[in-house]
Amino acid sequence: MQTDVAKDQLRELILDGTYPSGARLTEMEVAAALEMSRTPVREALRALAADGLVRPSGRGVVVAALDRDHLDEAYQVRAALEALTAELAATRQSEGRIAPADLVALRDVANETAAVTAEGRFADAVRLNRRFHRLIAELAGNSMALLTLERIWDQIQVSTLRSLAPPSRPAHVSGQHEDLVSAIILGHADEAAKVARAHVLDTRTVTNSKGEPA
């Protein structure tokens, strides 16, 4: 469906900073950029407004960013939901409901994220970090949590993109990822939730001062 294609393409342009927070967009400009008619673009903009990525402004929209207080709230919700998805993933693993190949994939992404971060490939690290956390949410088997996290992750990414910098403690971040993977593989639900919550709250603290992702 053209509207879905327009939404996905425009969302990616927002998340990668092509259209940064504060950028004003019009149907005509976006339609030209995406080489589409204005109707699917109009519907895509409405959908992205519902997701909190843009807000109406005059005859167009503006790419929205969370202010400091709302960003802090977003991290609090993210911490709670990622603790839940980590707990659910570990529980499903203990019950034998997760395929070994999925656990291998999770560890591989964690290792790749650590490697590219250490190499200073920051853009790749941001992308892989998002993939790592999404994989855990997928392993949790809770579609509502995944959908809600996707929206929160998008809003946080847009709101912090301009201030992002390579993490000052890459070994600490990678260590938390490894601890989280291990807890899930071992089926330790309480530990997985604890590590996930602490990891996100650490991220919130660092982001407030430097904008680093994790």
TrEMBL record:
InterPro entries: GntR_C, TF_FadR/GntR_C, Tscrpt_reg_HTH_GntR, WH-like_DNA-bd_sf, WH_DNA-bd_sf. One of its GO terms (molecular function) is DNA-binding transcription factor activity. Signal peptide: none annotated. This is FCD domain-containing protein. It comes from the Bacteria. Keywords: DNA-binding, Transcription, Transcription regulation. SMART domains: FCD, HTH_GNTR. PANTHER family: GLUCONATE OPERON TRANSCRIPTIONAL REPRESSOR, TRANSCRIPTIONAL REGULATOR, GNTR FAMILY.
